[in-house]
Specification:
With 319 residues, the protein is of the alpha/beta class. It has one domain (12-303). 15% of the residues lie in helices and 26% in strands. The chain is built from 3 helices and 19 strands. Strands 4, 6, 9, 10, 11, 15 and 16 form a 7-stranded mixed sheet that branches. Strands 2, 3, 7, 8, 12 and 14 form a 6-stranded mixed sheet that branches. It starts with 11 loop residues before the first strand and ends in a 23-residue tail after the last strand.
Length: 319
Amino acid sequence: MIRTLMSAVGLAVAILPSVCLAQAIEEKNLLSGKAKIEPDVGYIFVNGSVRQAGLLLRLPDAETIAAYEKDWSEALAKVQAKYPKKLKAWQDRVETARLTGKAPPEPPIEPTPENFAISAIELRNPVGFGPQYAFAKAKDPDGFSYLMKVKPGRYVYYGQLFGAPSSGYFGTCYCMGTVAFDVKAGMITDTGNFFLAAPGTDPAFPPRSEKVSGSEIGLYRPVAGADQFGAVTFGLPQTLQNYPSERAEFRAYGKLDNFYGVTIGRMPPVPGVLAYDRDRIVDLKANAEPVGGAVVEPGDAASAQDGLGAGATGSSESG
């Protein structure tokens, strides 16, 4: 079983991989032979009219869970082995406090399976892209694309984050609602300019002047307006068109932890993909199963139960 309990103070062990696990591929290196498209890994292509940066998290599969459980067990064994020494040192300090008339120190917490944790399993395969290391820069029209070599699996778009483990992260996580998509081995998954252009506006309240009925009542709906990033488009540059590829199939995804302590937000509604019923995520893909927790079909929005998706979202907003 995956251990997701909050650890007691002093019992959390950080096993936090770098966010730069994805290998950014530049067009010049592909053309020169320094880089190549390999059949046993996956690739994510991102495009847009401006430079962009974002973070994707690979959702745990059976292999990831097994490795996580192994690391958790080994880390727990290490801290349990150190506990008797810590307990003896505390007992000595208690005796010293008694002899000197001082208040005794707090006892160490004995590590147990119920109060011990390591870093969240969702942080095992982060994929960062941009704003540097663009695959190509287009002049007409202006645009920037990114190609990342990644491990195949299902990825969730965590948000527009900048930074590095050594200096911290900045930006907004889509902890309260986002999208996910699959990446297959030997395939370039084309996300186009979806991350920039697909989301609509996210009003504080749904407009009440429109006549709606049935499952649409109470949903946050995108409001038509000028879009600075243009229409949603897909398509690979000429350099990549001879390789196996497919368009990303986006699905609504449930809530996530604020793993990096950044500002909490959510992806704005995406027509045909993602909507909101107050704080509930609504999967607009008809006749399909949701890919994340806390996602409900439009017809179930009014009766959906409160709940969390892939993790608890108890973190508070920070700048």
